[in-house]
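Dear support,

I submitted the protein below through the web form. The confirmation email said the job was done, but the results page showed an empty box. After a refresh the structure appeared. I'm attaching both so you can tell me whether what I see now is the final result or a partial one.
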Amino acid sequence: MVESESSLQMSAQDFLALRDFVYSKSGIYFREAKKYFLENRIGKRINELTLPSYREYFNLLQGPKGLQELKFLFNEVTTNETSFWRNPPQIEAFQNFVLPEAVAVARKRGANKFRIWSAACSSGEEPYTLAMICREKDSLLRGLSVEIMATDISERVMKLAMIGQYGSYTLRNLNPGQLKLHFDQKGDDIFEVKPELKELVVYKNFNLVDYQGYRSLGMFDVIFCRNVLIYFDDVVKTKVIAGFHEQLNPKTYLMVGHSESISNYTSGFELVHFSMATGYRKNT
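What the results page shows now:
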């Protein structure tokens, strides 16, 4: 008989094995203090699969069905707390300073397309926020087609993002005018992103530690990667930031979380201060 989820215990050895496996596949590093988190999240999946132990689950990950199971594992261990217009000072800095500057650089370069990458896009709140701003800045972007590439390691949250339906809690930072302009109400507390926003966003399953895969995404004028680097150790941070640097056009921006800094991991960006927010501009 399989033990219940609540009684199944993760040994220190199993924790280290699973922690190191997750790190090798995703770059996400769980310190010993996160043992309970990993035990709880993976325990739910073990219970669904009616496996007798964490060791058996680890064996499954390394077996012929491991690649498929990895998708479920990523769904369980990634954190997806987000909202529209998250960290308003930073979004406003993008709206008022970064976007106009990046558009001017793109026009000077002779570009006919303006591309933004929302890395670790979760359930879509960030890329749709950026799409809202681009729609509202239509005159600024006139003559440029806009593409927002939204990527995430979790296929489950990307499927939710593509549906584009949200409740009032995740929309709490929007004003009534924004809600009316960009959403259709589908129920008492269900609001769906309008088609003209959805058409600006392209979703792709992508793992940020797939360093060789960055080039396949193409070049960008702005990259957003907020509240993600905190889950990586210094080695992975350095490689991910280098990948972003390579895929950014010259003199364009990388926006990271307000509590994150990349100054110790690269010399290819300069720190730019805005009102109550910061960004990193590629040097060349």
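Response: this is the final, complete result; the empty box was a page-load delay. The domain at 12-77 is CATH 1.10.155.10 (Chemotaxis Receptor Methyltransferase Cher; domain 1).
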